[in-house]
Amino acid sequence: MDYTNLDLGDISIAVSRTVHTGPNFQGSIVVNPGGPGSPGLEFASYVAKEIAPTVAKDFDFIGFDPRGVGKSAAVTCMTSKQTAQWLSMDSTPDTPAETAALMKSAGKISQGCLKYSPRMASKVGTPFATQDLDLLRSALHEDKLNWLGFSYGTTLGASYIQAFPNRVGRFVLDGAVDPALNGMQLSFGQSQGFQKAFQNYAQKCLQQGPCPLGSTRTAITARVNSLLARLDTRPLRTKDGTPLTQSLGTSAIFTAMYSTDMWELLTSALTSAYQGDGTGLLELSWMGSDQTGPATFGSNMQSAYYAIDCWDLPATPAAASLASAAQKWAKNAPIPEMAKSMSWSNAPCSRWFAHDTNPPTAATSSTAAPILIIGTRFDPATPYAWARALNAQLATSTLLTYGGNGHTAFGGGSTCIDSSVNSYLLTGLMPQPGKSCPA
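Now predict its structure.
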């Protein structure tokens, strides 16, 4: 449970293995889908079958639920009912009463961790998970860890590179996070990324023919703003009876920006919403939060996200500063409510019970291993600037660029990206420095 106090006892980490399919076994590759808080057990078989089948011939793919997550020693900060309530409540308060309600609910998440998971609540940060990774490497009988991490998986991977520089094997960090940034800096970068992603989505809708949402990007954006303004006071009906609130509608847009595969779903959902039916937007929102019903979830992802994220980073500001940032970020944003919600999303971490005492700093490592970093030009959740920053921080890293949209690139449909990553994983051969793959 705690590598600095072994008297606290042990915990269990759930691990899965997808066995190599060919005769030339090279070892294991541990994978992580991000989050923080996303379960990873089933992710290994998905990567092996859908993303990297050529690599799966020579490597076992290892999935795991990090501590605090899923079937490992899990952390609970909210019941399912409380989680649903939190996700649907007003995330961009306009009045003192709404602000007080949001901050009160945010504080309850921290209190809930201590109430429901008192032993694990302060033991789920990335430094602990990094130590777990090295035990997993040992359990696999590997001298070095091979790693394929997406999004938060790059944070965990970069942490391992720094803690165990001599045990780094082939490392792919896709959708890189800049470890030097604090919570508000990360949120501001994402706020800008999602705004740009929505504009690219609107432009794509126009390019594909008559767009049902409007005739120009300005018209499409204005209509979305009008919808979100309405949802603030008049939630839309849905087929299952769950009202589509403004926060759920905003969440649906955020979710759809993660993959261009969901853009047509968003267009359909917005079209239905303009006709008074919020079902499509509700389903997109649920997809993003792993919600399976009005008060049911497929995992503890929401609890684990806050437990890990708020522990890892310094406390975010109190309500007055969150409100100030929200107004500042929204000032020139095409969709102001999305920008505001990015600032207010930090409310739980401003009320957290404790934080890692080490502040965010740039990554440094003495590793000699070549590290492959992938950055997507218009990634909404991990902006391209973060990949460039991590590349500058890690001396042995090479940056591979994808010129398209969506969150992370490997397995997203680019033959150029996939062939470069597969070649590196199979042979250790890096792509040429500065290589860029077109959308």
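The first strand starts at residue 15 and ends at 18.
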